[in-house]
Amino acid sequence: MLKGSLAVLGGMLWTFTGFAQTAKLDSNYVNPHYEMRLKEFSAQPIPKNAVVFLGNSITARGKWAELLPGMPVVNRGIGGDITHGVLARLDDILAAKPKKIFLLIGINDLSRRFPEEVIMQKYEQLVQRVKQKSPKTKLYVQSVLPLLDDMLQPAYLKNLNPAVTSLNTKLQAFAKKHKLTYINLHPVFADASGQLKKEYSLDGIHVTDAAYPVWVQYLKDKKYL
């Protein structure tokens, strides 16, 4: 009886500890920039059969429509966004029943030291939302891009590449589980050491304007576009 009670107590302590750890996570995504972008999006309706690029500042900086003329391309990137923020605004995108969504999100989650299981839980919710709200939309899961430590200024961004590699491994398995297309961008953007290639690096985390045409060409070569 005592043994059983201790087991229950241990489970309760584990639950409370897990809750406390989760409660410490900075999962806030609402800020003036996020709200401004939402207002911009509301004034830019998503056209029929749209191709949506969805993510954080790395996506937001891309001139996707210019790079893909004649295609109904929509940029839904918000600087600083995390998986929680993408999930919160996903319904507005899915209401338009887009043809394709190219999702790239996770580096800001990692920089806030979110456990991988928390990130993957949000990915699970994202996929389930797409299946429920717009089942004909084809969702592409893009790998999180590597960083270039030598160029990074914020200390909290340094030495994250092992976490990026680990998360991408999980994302690849996740995409396979859900029968989604996983797009491995590392052959395009990573050097032999796993760092972001210097010629494509703006500041160690963001990519240069010259990187986006290469990115789009890779998507075309792989028949994703």
TrEMBL record:
Pfam families per UniProt: Lipase_GDSL_2
Signal sequence bounds: 1-20
SGNH hydrolase-type esterase domain location: 53-212
InterPro entries: Ester_Hydrolysis_Enzymes, SGNH_hydro, SGNH_hydro_sf
Name under which the protein is recorded: GDSL-type esterase/lipase family protein
Native organism taxonomy: Bacteria, Pseudomonadati, Bacteroidota, Cytophagia, Cytophagales
Keywords: Signal
Superkingdom of this protein's organism: Bacteria
Gene3D superfamilies: SGNH hydrolase (3.40.50.1110)
Coiled-coil intervals, chain numbering: none
